[in-house]
Write a structure and sequence with these properties.
This protein has 306 residues and is mainly beta. The protein has two domains: 216 residues, no CATH class; 78 residues, Immunoglobulin-like. Helices cover 4% and strands 54% of the residues. The strands form six sheets. Strands 1-2-3-16-17-15 form a six-stranded mixed beta sheet, with no helix packed on it. A four-stranded antiparallel beta sheet has the order 7-8-9-10, with no helix packed on it. Strand 2 and strand 3 form a beta hairpin. It is elongated. The protein starts with a strand and ends with a strand.
């Protein structure tokens, strides 16, 4: 059974804790207050089941119910809105099948975004991260048979891939130890303009850290204009400093990351104004420069050699 809060989900029977992605939707204000309530009905038998109800500013906008005997009794797990009208709901059926639905009309109607039917062993929902309007990550803990290890799964769900096992399992882990770097390619721009996500997961007194390096593919002419291929880093390789050719005027942040996803340096407005970025004292190697504007980001490779 899962105990969900905004940032922390606990799988009580497995002593598992998930400290999630930063679920703040950068730059987007949500003017409505969305909540959900799970409840049960009936006194047992074929007429009993469960339901969840979604509210906008305290007024019911959606309800879904199902019967226990048909393994269709739903439990809402997490509700995330990225703006006033577009939101995502993660829910489970019969405590095993995990789905994500999407609304574009302020929570009134919901359609299947994607889902996972794990078969045996079943999976517990842990949390979700909404990458953009078309892509999400679904984090699950697969419940083992006796004598087998627990298994953490991260699955990328994309719109129009349908239900069942049609999404992509990015990785599975049974060790829960050390640092794991995962590279993934997503369609479109990340909502928060980031190219790195970090997740930690603890299990049986062990803790693991997962760094996601996101590579973005452009899906429209507009996005191609936003992230210009004319941006160049020079000199490259660099030893003491670097500059950026065709630096976008609306740049809000420039960050230097290591290849394992660690933030090395966050350059201030003064560095951007003179277009000179200091790298003295940084170990030689290959790094990633993340250039963030008001509504986009792009990533460029930098080689440091002293």
């Amino acid at each position: 059974m899962l105990c969900i809060s905004f940032f922390i989900a606990i799988v009580a029977n497995c002593q598992t804790t998930f400290l999630g992605f930063d679920t703040t939707v950068c730059g987007n204000s949500v003017n409505f207050y969305y909540t959900f309530v799970n409840s049960h009905y009936g006194g047992g038998g074929s007429s009993s089941g469960s339901q969840f109800t979604i509210f906008r500013n305290g007024i019911q906008v959606h309800n879904r119910f199902g019967f226990s005997m048909s393994f269709d009794d739903p439990t809402a797990e997490e509700l995330i809105f990225i703006n006033d009208s577009v939101g995502f709901l993660a829910y489970s059926l019969a405590g095993a099948f995990v789905y994500i639905d999407k609304t574009t009309d302020y929570g009134n109607t919901w359609t299947r975004f994607d889902g996972f039917q794990p078969g045996n062993p079943w999976a517990d929902y842990v949390s979700s991260y909404i990458v953009n309007e078309h892509t999400s990550y679904l984090i699950m803990l697969r419940v083992p048979f006796p004598g087998l290890p627990s298994q953490l799964r991260v699955r990328r769900n994309s719109q129009n891939t349908g239900s069942g096992s049609s999404g992509t399992i990015l990785f599975t882990d049974t060790n829960f130890f050390g640092t794991v770097v995962i590279h993934d390619t997503i369609n479109g721009l990340n909502l928060c303009g980031r190219d790195t996500l970090k997740m930690s997961f603890s299990h049986n007194s062990q803790i693991a850290y997962y760094h996601f390096i996101l590579h973005q593919t452009l899906t429209s002419i507009n996005e191609k204009e936003i992230i210009s291929s004319k941006i160049k880093i020079y000199p490259n390789p660099s030893s003491n400093f670097f500059s950026i050719i065709n630096l976008p005027k609306k740049t809000t942040n420039i960050q230097l990351y290591s290849m394992n996803g660690s933030l090395i340096k966050n350059y201030n407005a003064e560095s951007r104004s003179i277009n000179k970025f200091d790298i003295k004292g940084i170990d030689p190697g290959i790094y990633l420069i993340n250039i963030i504007t008001n509504n986009s980001s792009s990533t460029h490779k930098l080689i440091i050699s002293h």
